[in-house]
Amino acid sequence: MIIIDKLGLNIKKFRNIKKLSLKELAKEIDVSPSMLSQIESGKANPSLNTLKLISKNLDVPMFTLFEEENKESAMIVKKENRIRITSGRTNSDKYQLSYDLLSPDMKGDIQLCEMKLSGFQYNSDDFNIHKGEEVAVCSLGKIELMLETGTYLLQNGDSVRIPSGTKHRWKNPGKEDCAIIFAISPPIF
């Protein structure tokens, strides 16, 4: 579940670190200053696309916006305590696209996440490109990896390495849910 209050506080914290006014950031992410103020105060829940724009404009990985201070030396993440970001319906069993952070935080050298897609969904409207190598394994169903050079079908258990700077996009080719577990180094998502 999205922790809206912590999300808003972190957005405000990183906005202040970047020395951006509420109005400046709102303009960059194409929302009204009033809407951004509501997000920062925990009164509104941003869409996944708005979260992506916020993290891009604040130069922080998206999951960093949900982090709480972790002062423990053990870094175990219980399934029920994962940070989850969803698109579409927000209850945990019904979604179009969801991301779970499997790493305890964004402080390490690698980030581990799980992405689930419901039937016939894409993970984004366009190709993604980022610094950092990504390794993914299909953990549920079948999923298509779309690159500029072609499309590849991964079945449950298949894995792939995507080099840094490679444009890519994921698609669920069927009506049943599918999922991948992916690692990115350095953490950028």
UniProtKB/TrEMBL annotation:
- Report the domain of life of the source organism: Bacteria
The record's listing under CDD domains reads: cupin_XRE_C (cd02209), HTH_XRE (cd00093)
Molecular function GO labels: DNA binding; DNA-binding transcription factor activity
Tell me yes or no: is DNA-binding among this UniProt entry's keywords.
Answer: yes
Which InterPro entries does its entry note? Answer: Cro/C1-type_HTH (IPR001387), Cupin_2 (IPR013096), Lambda_DNA-bd_dom_sf (IPR010982), RmlC-like_jellyroll (IPR014710), RmlC_Cupin_sf (IPR011051), TransReg_Diox_bact_type (IPR050807)
- Cellular component annotations (GO), alphabetically ordered: cytosol
User: What are the entry keywords?
Assistant: DNA-binding
Query: Where is the HTH cro/C1-type domain positioned along the sequence?
Result: 11-65
The cross-references to PANTHER family, in alphabetical order and at most eight, read: BLL2473 PROTEIN, HTH-TYPE TRANSCRIPTIONAL REGULATOR
Full protein name? Helix-turn-helix transcriptional regulator
